[in-house]
Design brief:
Layout lengths: L5 E6 L5 H12 L2 E4 H14 L7 H9 L3 E6 L4 E6 L2 E2 L7 H11 L2 H14 L5 E5 L2 H5 L5 E6 L2 H13 L7 H17 L12 E4 L5 H16 L4
Parallel strand pairs: 1-6, 1-7, 2-6, 7-8
Antiparallel strand pairs: 3-4, 4-5
Helix pairs in contact: 1-9, 2-4, 2-5, 4-8, 7-8
The chain binds 2'-deoxycytidine-5'-monophosphate.
Amino acid sequence: MAQKIIIAIDGFSSCGKSTLAKELAAVLGYNYIDSGAMYRAITLYFLRNAVDVNDSGKILDALANIHLSFVFNEKTQKSDIYLNEENVEHMIRDMIVAEKVSEVAAIKEVRAFAVGQQKRMGKKKGIVMDGRDIGTVVFPDAELKIFMTADPEVRVKRRFTELYATNPNITLEEVKHNLEMRDYIDSNRAESPLRQADDAIVLNNSSLTREEQLEKVLEWVKDRTAVTA
Ligand code: DC
């Protein structure tokens, strides 16, 4: 049997990281962990409890009351995130959370909290995790690191289509502005900013179909899991 590895996928918002990660995990029988969902769930808790993001004492108190877990959903064939035993998988995709999440994800205490949990999830390998700092901070020794990119117009259109399904009032302009803002904050924050790991492979999927993309990456996985005699 092929050995199990860690696959780290990083990149800007809406490059299709989670689509690829989900498909890879399904084909390989790996766990898929959406690290962005963790920052989104923490943000939801902060919004609901009006946590002052400028007060590190209040932040630490809030984090002590947050329990995050992933539970496999048979219907969607992927894990849903639970915040203190409540399924918040849908709620965290809301624009209200999207507008605040980059600010919350830039907080040192929040990152330490999330990264600690993420590292533990990789102990047994056989995991695909996507995010912004997976190949650089969470799993610097991951056997396969992918840095995903896509042309900005392609990303805006993809994200718009996704959000429009549940919110027909959303505009292309709003989506474009949110993506640009998040890219800027994610790339320029002091704590583990988004950057490509030196040993990551760049994957620009602007003109690739999902099938082509998956095929390409499975080849990379094969190279790294081949058992040498
Ligand atoms: O992947 P996403 O759009 O759901 O991520 C939501 C936000 O969380 C994103 O704006 C940046 C932040 N994030 C992060 O800082 N580090 C990660 N590993 C994953 C997400």
